[in-house]
């Protein structure tokens, strides 16, 4: 049996205020849209354009991020890609892709908006793209415990 991977990583800006709703069981669900910037060559010049990504934060991540993430925030998001298809009332097929994340280690506020300082948490450093990276395990062969990781977050 072959292993499979379903993971997306994006670094971009939130383009509208996040929407938070709660399931009947009380689970928080935050929906937001993140834009990434790209360019393509048109003739002799390059033309910039944006790609918009639907992102869903759930549970503890949505609770703790509520009110902290706002339009204009720069986010690094890592999560699973989910694709949905359905037929609307007129019989037309609709498609939607989204990135689902439910772990605090999968999203970091990088620009200091929303109460964050812009600095990475004490559990890691930033690479040249600004994405968080984990410190290497210590040489004394102790396992690294990330159970208090979300206490070090800037929001």
Question: Can you walk through the features of this model?
Answer:
The protein has one helix spanning 60-65; strands spanning 8-14, 19-22, 28-42, 45-58, 74-87, 93-101, 107-109, 124-126, 132-134. It has 155 residues and is mainly beta. It has one domain: OB fold (Dihydrolipoamide Acetyltransferase, E2P) (Beta Barrel), CATH 2.40.50.140. Strands 1-3-4-6-5 form a 5-stranded mixed β-barrel. Strands 8-9 form a two-stranded antiparallel ribbon. The model is unreliable at 104-108 and 114-155 (pLDDT under 50).
Total number of helices:
1
Please tell me the overall pLDDT. Answer: 74
Find the CATH superfamily: Nucleic acid-binding proteins
Number of separate domains: 1
What is the ordering of alpha helices and beta strands? EEEEHEEEEE
Cα distance, first to last residue? 41 Å
Q: From the alpha-carbon coordinates, what is the Rg to the nearest angstrom?
A: 18 Å
- CATH C-level label: Mainly Beta
Proportion of strand residues: over 45%
Helix content: under 10%
Low-confidence regions: 104-108, 114-155
Secondary-structure content class: mainly beta
């Amino acid at each position: 049996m072959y292993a499979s991977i379903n993971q997306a990583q994006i670094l971009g800006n939130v383009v509208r205020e996040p929407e938070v709703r709660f399931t009947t069981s009380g689970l928080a669900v935050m929906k937001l849209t993140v834009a990434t910037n790209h360019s393509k060559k048109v003739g002799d010049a390059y033309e910039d354009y944006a790609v918009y990504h639907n992102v869903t934060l759930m549970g503890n991540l949505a609770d703790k991020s509520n009110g902290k993430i706002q339009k204009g925030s720069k986010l690094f998001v890592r999560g699973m890609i989910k694709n949905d298809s359905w037929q609307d009332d007129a019989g037309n097929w609709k498609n939607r892709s989204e990135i689902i994340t439910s772990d605090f280690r999968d999203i970091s506020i990088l620009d200091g908006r929303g109460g964050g300082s812009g600095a990475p948490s004490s559990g890691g450093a930033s690479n040249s793209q600004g994405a968080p990276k984990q410190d290497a395990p210590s040489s004394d062969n102790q396992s690294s415990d990330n159970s208090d990781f979300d206490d070090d977050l800037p929001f």
